[in-house]
Specification:
alpha+beta, 7 helices, 19 strands, single chain, four-stranded antiparallel β-sheet, 419 residues
Length: 419
Amino acid sequence: MISALSWIPRGVSKLKLEHIADDDEEALKAMKLYASRHGAGDSGSEDADMMGTSDPDSNTDSDAEMDDVARARKFAAMLKEDAKVAAKSSKVGSKGAQQISDSLAELNMDAYDDEDGDDEDMNRILGGGNPGMAYYADPNDDPYLRDKGGESESDDELAYKETDLLIAAARNEEDISHLEIWVYEEGDDRNPDGNIYVHHSLLLPAFPLCLAWGPCDPASGSVGGNFMAVGSFEPGIEIWNLDVVDAVEPVVTLGGADYEAARQIQLDALTKKKKKGKKKGKGGKGADEVPEVPVLPGSHADAVLGLAWNQEYCNVLASGSADRTVKIWDVATQQATQTLTLHGDKVQAVKWRPVEASLLLSGGFDRRLFLSDLRAPDAKASSWKVGSDVEALAWNPHDPNTFAVSTEDGKVSIFDTRN
């Protein structure tokens, strides 16, 4: 199921996407510390590792090598013993034993640990003067290497073309939600119908309901990025960086549940339950009733149904919610600056007026439309009535005075702001 769609303007995305850094020093230190405390091995070696007196990697390699040597020596001793027994039994056995002894003498297992002569043995096995695989010190000089130290084929496959058209789709399948980035290739003489496919996807934690694209980086407040705001059944608004192909979490979340306060409420509820024992309260809430999760200050209190990113003031984002409010967010500071309470039911859709960026159109399940001027929030907003719940809004790109509204009864109506 595709629950929301949004165009990504051409040219705003990086042609070569970024990846999460694998060499983050702090992450590597944490992983090494965890491995030293929980890694395999006996307690003695673990204690030595924690004290810094041994190298886990070198110990592991040396132990494995010693085990191989011990097994080889044991096998050689068994062969010698069998050769002696065979030599006593018959002349044929004596001849075979002599061959085995000669082979063992050539292997010289008793001097296995000695490093002298390693180069001669390797030259004898591989052939004298063989340069091996490291003939070229610089991989760029090797004519047989296709990837000469450059980018891998997977990176080339993930790169966009300048002619690509990008679409963001919020998708849910089998209770798993994704933010998918689709690539649409326009048709040509060879392929008149064009081509469309999923380029990559990001895993979302909640069922998505609406999308809005914007260029403002929430971390720095700078303009020129490629970000997507996602509204869901959760009260928070997630903002994802679309130029990171393997992102596992949003850049920021505007509002949302206050999980620290929720944990404190649960602890308080458990404490009260222990004090009451097996007694049940009279006329109050049930003892097993789960308390409502609180939200952060300034956040919506219910699902976010509609989003609109202001394309003139790129740090401004509008949101409509099932809590009957419209909020105006400053993405740079990640705070709600205004809250409008015009609607009497869920707010389904919000749209900025293209030619006058301070005017916001909103529609809800109260079957009302409001056009608010955020420069004068206390002024009376223009309003219109429709015959059913509002589903979507769109301004006319050819006539900025008119807009279209679709409603639950399947109708699309056109309104003029001058009437």
